[in-house]
Write a structure and sequence with these properties.
The complex is a heterodimer. Chain A is 76% helix and 3% strand. Chain A is mainly alpha-helical. Chain A has a two-stranded antiparallel ribbon with strand order 1-4. In chain A, helix 7 runs antiparallel to helix 8. Chain B contains 10 helices and 10 strands. In chain B, the strands form 2 sheets. A 6-stranded mixed β-sheet of chain B has the order 6-7-8-3-9-10, sandwiched between helices. Classes of the chains: A mainly alpha, B alpha/beta. Chains A and B meet through helix 6, helix 7 and helix 8 of A and helix 2, helix 3 and helix 4 of B.
Chain lengths: 290, 261
């Protein structure tokens, strides 16, 4: 039972992460390779707040969202100056810089040794979440709230503006819209989603080190998004289900780890290639043609 | 609104080939309620001139004046908000948005386009969205008639329309804003004769009823003759001929160098 609930917790965290990526990559068509950097910033900032202050979850989540959002301004600046491939490469650089800082700023992050003994989340400053059952319920509630926020944004005129930017930013500017501001807000939201996922992850696992927030993790999140589908919440959920459940299924088949791990990578890669050929918008994604 | 271009110059620097002067002092004035066509060969800088007026190119010399005021400090989106509407060369509807969403995107009412809005002002957003929908329906009714097929296609993706139809809706969309000046870049290119007549009727209606100022780039000379009061012939980065359309198009120099007659 606990194993099943553990999978649910991971699933909830990945849905939030992939929704964050969906905000920029799926809705606005801005391919970023630094989602794990924001995930890591959220995890480390969240850890520091949990360890230093006895604050309720909502306060810590707000602080984490704002701080990761502020970091996203660096990416926003790059998006104003660089287009397409060049912008994506800049986000790759951002990912590498954040990882290097997390890995080498030992005084603050404890570098490769990681930080252990992270306190559990407290709801309203009273109930401390202990064990996998409360975490499964709590992360499910947070995930549902994030899905609700994503759906509300997608259906709103702001969602329409992001989809229009995806189709033709030049035309949108000529229609009197400040596309730079709209993109900056999308990056902020995307980073905030990832930051909250990082906070949940750190407090659940009780230990973090920089290897959870590598470029590989960013690629993994983007793969999950494209496999599940871009532009809507259903796709993000499908993507998270695929990447979280698949390794467990392989485990059930009884393959040895030495085979299961590389096989999993091959299946992810193959799924991505097949999806791009058969259904470029992903399993449950929306047609995003221009 | 009156649009004036004063001594517009644009130079591209190239370390190997030297400087290339695309625009070498363009002067043009278009009064309110007037349709002026810009004609000229390919690569003479017509679209570049539109990009300067719209704010996509900012490193030009000279002045772009709207009712006597220099708009150089205004970024593209603020120029659009100030009343400059633009129809681009080629298809410009957003294919991933429905027809109605395309119309709404051109509205000056931006209520709800901030991510906080759906959580604090959803009722107000609903009202504004309804008003935009009504305005879009009114515009389509007025331009294409109440039996227009576009009224039943409002929820369909714009990519479902043909190229010519997208041009028509592209022009209709400009009316959602409060444009006073329209920059139309080859509105008839790739459009069949039936739609060309509709486009001409729409533009004429806009000028007569709403006193819009229209600047038009076009290679279809019959269209230019039927619509434009004045015509400017652009060549070698300068306006070589300017005057009444018939007069400019009958000029021997224009005939020889551009029309090939």
């Amino acid at each position: 039972m606990n194993y099943f609930l553990h999978i649910i917790v991971l699933l909830n965290i990945y849905i939030i992460l992939i929704l964050g990526a969906n905000m920029t990559v799926g809705m606005a068509g801005l391919l970023t390779l630094c989602q794990a950097a924001f995930y890591g910033i959220g995890a480390y900032i969240g850890t520091m707040l949990l360890m230093q202050f006895d604050l309720p979850f909502i306060v810590i989540a707000l602080i984490v969202s704002v701080i990761t959002g502020v970091f996203s301004l660096l990416i926003s600046y790059a998006s104003l100056k660089l287009k397409n491939d060049y912008f994506t490469l800049a986000t790759l650089g951002f990912q590498m810089i954040i990882f290097t800082i997390l890995y080498n700023w030992v005084d603050v992050t404890k570098g490769p040794y990681g930080i252990s003994g992270i306190p559990a989340i407290k709801i309203l400053g009273l109930w401390s979440l202990k064990g996998v059952v409360p975490y499964a319920i709590f992360t499910a509630v947070v995930m549902c709230a994030m899905v609700g926020i994503f759906v509300a944004l997608k259906k709103s005129p702001y969602g329409r503006l992001l989809r229009a930017i995806r189709a033709d930013e030049t035309a949108v500017k000529a229609l009197g819209r400040n596309t730079s501001a709209a993109k900056t807000r999308a990056f902020f939201l995307s980073a905030a989603f990832s930051g909250i996922a990082g906070l949940l992850y750190a407090s659940y696992v009780r230990f973090i080190d920089p290897t959870s927030f590598t470029l590989n993790e960013s690629l993994f999140i983007i793969c999950a998004l494209f496999i599940g589908g871009v532009g809507n919440a259903k796709g993000s959920i499908a993507g998270a289900l695929f990447v979280v459940i698949l390794p467990e299924l392989l485990r059930f088949i009884g393959l040895p780890d030495a085979v299961a791990a590389p096989l999993r990578e091959i299946i992810y890669g193959l799924a991505l290639v097949v999806i791009m050929f058969v259904r470029p918008q992903g399993m449950l994604g929306e047609e995003m043609s221009k | 609104m009156k649009l004036e271009l004063q001594d517009i110059r644009l130079t591209f620097s190239n370390s190997r080939k030297g400087d290339f002067h695309l625009l070498q002092g363009v002067n043009l004035a278009v009064s309110e309620g007037e349709i002026t066509a810009i004609v000229g060969g390919n690569g003479t800088g017509k679209t570049t001139l539109f990009n300067i007026i719209s704010g996509f190119i900012t490193d030009y010399q000279g002045k772009v004046l709207i009712d006597g005021k220099d708009i150089r400090p205004l970024p593209t989106y603020k120029r659009a908000q100030a009343g400059i509407g633009r129809l681009f060369q080629g298809t410009q509807l957003m294919g991933n948005l429905t027809l109605m969403e395309n119309m709404k995107m051109a509205s000056v009412d931006t209520m709800g386009e901030h991510p906080i809005s759906p959580f604090i002002a959803w009722k107000s957003i609903r009202t504004h969205e309804y008003q935009k929908e009504q305005r879009a329906i009114d515009i389509i009714n007025k331009l294409f008639g109440s039996d227009s097929k576009y009224l039943s296609m409002l929820d369909q993706k714009a990519s479902a329309l043909s190229y010519g139809e997208q041009r028509l809706i592209g022009i209709a969309r400009l009316l959602m804003g409060e444009s006073k000046i329209l920059l139309l870049d080859e509105p008839t290119s790739g459009v069949n004769p039936v739609y060309i007549k509709t486009i001409a009727d729409i533009i004429r209606k806009l000028v007569e009823e709403q006193h819009m100022t229209v600047l038009l780039i076009e290679h279809n000379m019959n269209f230019v003759k039927s619509l434009a009061t004045n015509c400017a012939y652009l060549d070698n980065g300068k306006i070589m001929q300017y005057g009444q359309t018939e007069q400019v198009l009958n000029d021997e120099g224009v005939k020889n160098s551009y029309l090939g007659v």
